[in-house]
Write a structure and sequence with these properties.
single chain, 272 residues, alpha/beta, Collagenase (Catalytic Domain), five-stranded mixed sheet, 28% helix, globular, binds zinc ion
Length: 272
C-alpha cells in the first residue's frame, strides 16, 4: 500500500487512477507507456538518497534501475496467469533465507515525535504479529537504535521513518533491496486520513512487501492495475480481498487491510 488507500485513498485514488487506468482501458496495447512517459511519471522522493517509486509504493534505487525495470518488466509481455498471494520473482523467489526470516530487525525513528511514535510502536507490533502468526517469520524491534534510525543504521535490517507530503501513505521494500533502500517510510497522512484503513492495516500491507509479496492485483489484467509479470503465484486462486490488493483496483476488501485465509495460505507456502 504503500501507496494510497481508501480515503486515504483520497490522495492516492487520483494517482492510482492515472497509473492504473480504468477497467475499460485494459487492452495491452494501451497499458504500455513509452519510456519517456514512464520516466516522466515515475515519482522521485525529493531528498538526497531518495528512491524512485513505481507501482505506488515500491522503491527502485536509481535511474539505471528504472530503465532496466522499464525494459525488462514494463515492455515485457503481459503475464497471462490468473492464479492468491504472489511472491516477487526474478529467476527465483525474492525472499529471506531460512535464518534471516527469523531475525527481521527494525528500529522506529524518534523523528515521529512522541505521540505518533507511540502509535507506530503499537501498530508495528500488531502488524508484525499478524504475519508472525501465520508464517515462519519473526520481526524484532530494536528500540536502542531509534535515536539514529536511518537508512545507514547497520544495527537493524530495516528502518521505519516518517516523511511528509509524499504521493503514498507508506512505502516499503523487497528482500533484495540494499540496506540503504530497506526502509518503511510512513507519510504524515497515515496518521490522519486513511479512511477504512488503520495504521496497523497499512503496515500489514507494507510488511507484506518486505517479505517479498507483490500486489495481488498484478495477477489480473481485469483489475485495471496490472503491473508486470515478475511474480510467482503462491495459491491457485486470485484473491480480490487480499491484504496486498488495492481496494480501488476492483478489489472486494471494503474495511481495514487484513490477511485473508488465502494470504495466510500463501505466506505459509513461502515461509513454511
Ligand atoms: Zn503495496
Amino acid at each position: 500500500m504503500l501507496k494510497f488507500r481508501s480515503v486515504a485513498m483520497l490522495a492516492g485514488v487520483s494517482m492510482l487512477g492515472a497509473a492504473c487506468g480504468g477497467p475499460e482501458t485494459q487492452q495491452e496495447s494501451e497499458v504500455k507507456p513509452t519510456w519517456e512517459e514512464f520516466q516522466a511519471n515515475a515519482y522521485r522522493e525529493p531528498w538526497e538518497g531518495g528512491k524512485i517509486i513505481v507501482n505506488g509504493d515500491e522503491a527502485l534505487e536509481s535511474e539505471e534501475e528504472l530503465a532496466a525495470y522499464f525494459k525488462n518488466v514494463v515492455q515485457a509481455e503481459l503475464g497471462k496467469s490468473q492464479d492468491g498471494l504472489a511472491v516477487y520473482y526474478i529467476g527465483g523467489d525474492i525472499k529471506w533465507s531460512s535464518t534471516q526470516k527469523l531475525n527481521l530487525t527494525y528500529c522506529i525513528s524518534n523523528n515521529f515525535g512522541t505521540t505518533n511514535k507511540a502509535k507506530m510502536v503499537t501498530a508495528m507490533a500488531n502488524a508484525t504479529a499478524a504475519w508472525e502468526a501465520t508464517a515462519s517469520v519473526n520481526f524484532t524491534y530494536l528500540s536502542q537504535y531509534d535515536a539514529s534510525c536511518t537508512a545507514s543504521q547497520t544495527g537493524v535490517l530495516f528502518d521505519v521513518r516518517p516523511v511528509s507530503g509524499q504521493s503514498y501513505v507508506a512505502r516499503a521494500f523487497f528482500p533484495n533491496s540494499a540496506r540503504s533502500g530497506r526502509n518503511v517510510l510512513v507519510d504524515s497522512s497515515a496518521f490522519t486520513s486513511t479512511g477504512a484503513w488503520s495504521l496497523t492495516g497499512v503496515l500489514r500491507h507494507e510488511l507484506g512487501h518486505t517479505l517479498g509479496f507483490r500486489h495481488e492485483h498484478t495477477r489480473s489484467t481485469a483489475s485495471g492495475c496490472y503491473e508486470d509479470n515478475q511474480w510467482r503465484a503462491l495459491t491457485s486462486t486470485y484473491d480480490r480481498a487480499s491484504v496486498m490488493h488495492y481496494p480501488q483496483c476492483n478489489g472486494t476488501q471494503t474495511g481495514d487491510l487484513v490477511l485473508t485465509s488465502l494470504d495466510k495460505q500463501g505466506a505459509r507456502s513461502l515461509y513454511p
